[in-house]
Amino acid sequence: MDLKEYRIEFLNEIRNNAEQDGNDPQNEFLNNVLDRLEEAEEIRDPILTSCYLKGQRSRIMAFDAYAYDEADSSIELFAVDFNNTQEATTLTNTIINDLCNHMLNFIDEAYNGNIRNYCDESNEIIDVAAEFKEKIGKNRTQSEIIKFKLFVITNSVLSTSVKSINRDDFLDRPVEVNIWTLERFFQLYNSHTSEEIEIKTSDFNCEGIQCIKADINDFNEYDAYLAIMPGKFLADIYLKHGSRLLQGNVRAFLSVRGKVNKGIRNTIIKRPSRFFTYNNGIAVIARSIKLNKEKTKIIEFHDLQIINGGQTTASLASAIIKKDTEDNLANIFVPMKLTVINANKEMSEEEEKNYNELAADISKSANCQNPVTDADF
Question: Rounded to the nearest 5 degrees, what angle is found at the Cα of 221, between the Cα atoms of 217 and 227?
């Protein structure tokens, strides 16, 4: 099946389901794609809430669903661009910017304004705005939110003129824009799994990750490395990719209220040079990696996943957003145990199944230790 055939089949499925359920095709499309994204573990527990309001100077505030990602402390907003036509349509820069602005306008009004001025008192969107304001908090230190994630979801194809979708920080927090076009859903359909993450250290002003390969006989299943991860690099990749890096990590970071997280934060602020020796480090798996010519540094990760150390990772990212210790991060390094499963990019369904099972087993083993309490000392 090619992209054109996929588009027709996808659209017919939406139309048929909408007719059977007595639903609007756009709403049916939204339900369908959110289910697909949940199944692919790209999002979790989205809440369907249609919002379209006009504020001061006719400023539009609009979105079609929202969610909270506690693993990376973010608010997620979803906006749909659905075209109920057989002809291929194009997603342009203008459409992307308009939809993103509409979502950010709502966040802005929820935080700084009063949504009640623009809708009926019984509108449920008032409660959503109140939730957003409470989670964003009065300042960065007290906030539950360190990131905003905007999703533009469409059955169009991406215009070749779209070169960048980066957005400036908003309310002193990074904004991540995710564009899900027809091509991307087609790729997801063909892969039968979640999208893979490609990370080049050079993209984050890092020359590479110091590492040493463990000599533990000739295993075909995996290679093992011990490495030293710069704290700034770890925080930066987490701020970009968020909870997608934590797939399989059963102890995802939730907040800095817990005793362990407060301890991590105190070390970041007060004794950054001791972070390496105080911290247990992180456990990571990857499909494959690329080393520098000397074989001493990792310069690329293919499908990196943090399976233990979510608290450490998110605490470092939180420190950047809350401006606790931007300078200190240069002095922070994190021990890392890396398992490289050496899986091919193109795998059969059976190979994919074996890979996922091995990754799950490693994750379970890394997270099954009993916690150490003060009484143990």
Answer: 70
d(CA 234, CA 236): 6
What is the rounded radius of gyration, in angstroms, for the C-alpha atoms of the chain? 22
Task: Return d(Cα 31, Cα 22) in angstroms, integer.
Answer: 14
| pLDDT at position 357 | 75
Tokens 């091919």 appear where?
344
Return d(Cα 282, Cα 306) in angstroms, integer: 7
Model confidence pLDDT, tens digit, residues 297-311: 999 999 898 888 888
| φ/ψ of residue 251, rounded to 5 | -120, 55
Q: Which two tokens stand for residue 172?
A: 């002193």
- Residue 1 half-sphere exposure toward CB, CA atoms < 13 A: 12
Spatial CA neighbour of 43 closest among 63, 64, 71:
71
- In contact, 72 and 314? CB cutoff 8 Å: yes
Query: Would you say 289 and 301 are in contact if contact means Cβ atoms under 8 Å apart?
Result: yes
In terms of DSSP H, where are the helices of 205-348? 231-241, 259-270, 275-278, 310-321
Helix (H) or strand (E) holding 143: none
Closest listed residue to residue 205, CA positions, set 178, 240, 176, 179: 240
d(CA 269, CA 261): 12
Residue whose entry in the numeric block shows the structure tokens 């990196």: 304
- Contact indicator for 218, 315 with CB cutoff of 8 Å: no
- Token pair, residue 333, equals 């390094």
Distance CA 153, CA 80 (A): 5
Residue in 160, 152, 156 with CA at minimum distance from that of residue 7: 156
Instruction: Name the nearest CA neighbour of 329 among 245, 204, 243.
Output: 204
Position 99 scores a pLDDT of: 97
Q: Report pLDDT digits (tens) over 220-232.
A: 678 899 999 999 9
Give the largest Cα separation in the chain, rounded: 69
List the end-to-end C-alpha distance of the chain, in Å, as a whole number. 62
Among residues 171, 170, 103, 174, which one has the least CA distance to residue 137? 171
Beta strands in 279-350 (DSSP E): 282-286, 288-291, 297-302, 305-308, 333-340
In 3-state terms, the chain is what percent helix, strand and coil (to 5)?
Answer: 40, 25, 35
Q: Which two tokens stand for residue 73?
A: 């402390």
Assign 224 to helix, strand or coil.
Answer: strand
**Residue 69 one-letter amino acid:** D
